[in-house]
Every structure is written in structure tokens, then in C-alpha cells.
């Protein structure tokens, strides 16, 4: 368990949203639809899933968890027709990376500089942890829209449910 409350909250939110990402991938009736391009949309659901999994395996797993993960960002955006099973496996690896990395974050690490420069800038780790949550949620929304358009099914998958937050408790 991380000794930083922020790291614990971020890890919980990322895990919730990665589970939602898995549900999104599973909600496509046909595997090929994960890779279907849409006019005016740069990335398919498959591409975004690879990107999100690689992003978190790098920033949490490698930077904080000591997993040894080596990111290939170009492949995240360049690979195509990866099976649904492999996409889900990458999402599950990202979940483990978040857990491993967050467990090693204490208050001093969260208040200090992030161990890598990001976009040519030095950032406070706590700020970047919050950014990683927003980044995942942003792309999760894109995947949800992609799925609805490609499949013609407007039904949601129950993503980003507040009831799944760590502080949620039922009425007495």
C-alpha cells in the first residue's frame, strides 16, 4: 500500500478506468471492429488501448515499480490487428504496473519532481499522477464513442462510476 494518499487514490481510479477499458474492448461484437477506422478520427479503439496500456506500464511500472518495461510508443500507434485477447492482456499488465508503481510512492516522491522530463518539461509527480488519470479518461471516452459509432450500439458499459471510488459508501 502506498504511503501517499494521492498515489493510493490515483491508483484506484486508474484501476477502475482500466477495468472499464477492458469492458469497452469486450463490448465490440466483432474483433475486427476494434480496428475499424472512422472518418475524421485518427485512432481506433485498438490503437488507443495499446497506447494507454503502454503509457501506464511505462510511467507506473518502469518509472516507479521497477518492472523493467521498455516502452515502444511508435508501436503503440503503429501496430494493427492485434487480437482482442492480446489487447486485454496488455490492459491487465497495465493494471499490475499501476499497482506495483503506486505501492512504491510515498509523500516525498509525490511532492518531488517526476523522474523523467515529460514533453520537455519538469513536472511535480503529484501533478503528473493526476494528469495520467485524466489522460486515461480522455481516451476511454474516445473509445466509447468509437464503439458506439462502429457497432451502432448506443448502450454504455458503465464506465467511470463514482460508486467505484475508494470513498464511496452506501447510505446508512
Q: Tell me the name of the CATH homologous superfamily.
A: dinb family like domain
Mean pLDDT reading: 95
SSE pattern, N- to C-terminal: HHHHHH
Instruction: State the helix count.
Output: 6
Helix-strand layout with pairing:
Blueprint: H1 5-27, H2 45-62, H3 73-78, H4 84-102, H5 107-111, H6 125-151
Helix pairs in contact: 1-4, 1-6, 2-4, 2-6
Short recap of the structure:
Helices cover 57% and strands 0% of the residues.
Could you explain how this protein is built, in words?
- With 172 residues, this protein is mainly alpha-helical.
- The protein has one domain: Four Helix Bundle (Hemerythrin (Met), subunit A) (Up-down Bundle), CATH 1.20.120.
- Helix content is 57%, strand content 0%.
- The chain is built from six helices and no strands.
- α1 packs parallel to α6, α2 runs parallel beside α4 and α2 runs antiparallel to α6.
- The two termini are 28 Å apart.
- The model has no long low-confidence stretch (mean pLDDT 95).
Provide tags for this entry.
172 residues; mainly alpha; Four Helix Bundle (Hemerythrin (Met), subunit A); 6 helices; 0% strand; globular
Amino acid at each position: 500500500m502506498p504511503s501517499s494518499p494521492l498515489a493510493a487514490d490515483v491508483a484506484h481510479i486508474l484501476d477502475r478506468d482500466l477495468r472499464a477499458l477492458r469492458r469497452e474492448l469486450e463490448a465490440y461484437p466483432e474483433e475486427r471492429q476494434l480496428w475499424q477506422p472512422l472518418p475524421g478520427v485518427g485512432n481506433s479503439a485498438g490503437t488507443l488501448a495499446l497506447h494507454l496500456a503502454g503509457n501506464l506500464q511505462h510511467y507506473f511500472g518502469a518509472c516507479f515499480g521497477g518492472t523493467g518495461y521498455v516502452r515502444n510508443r511508435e508501436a503503440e500507434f503503429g501496430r494493427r490487428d492485434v487480437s482482442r485477447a492480446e489487447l486485454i492482456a496488455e490492459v491487465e499488465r497495465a493494471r499490475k504496473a499501476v499497482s506495483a508503481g503506486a505501492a512504491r510512492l510515498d509523500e516525498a516522491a509525490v511532492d518531488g519532481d517526476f523522474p523523467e522530463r515529460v514533453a520537455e518539461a519538469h513536472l511535480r509527480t503529484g501533478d503528473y499522477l493526476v494528469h495520467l488519470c485524466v489522460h486515461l479518461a480522455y481516451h476511454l471516452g474516445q473509445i466509447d464513442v468509437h464503439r458506439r459509432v462502429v457497432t451502432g450500439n448506443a448502450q454504455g458499459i458503465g464506465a467511470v462510476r463514482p460508486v467505484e471510488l475508494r470513498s464511496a459508501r452506501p447510505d446508512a
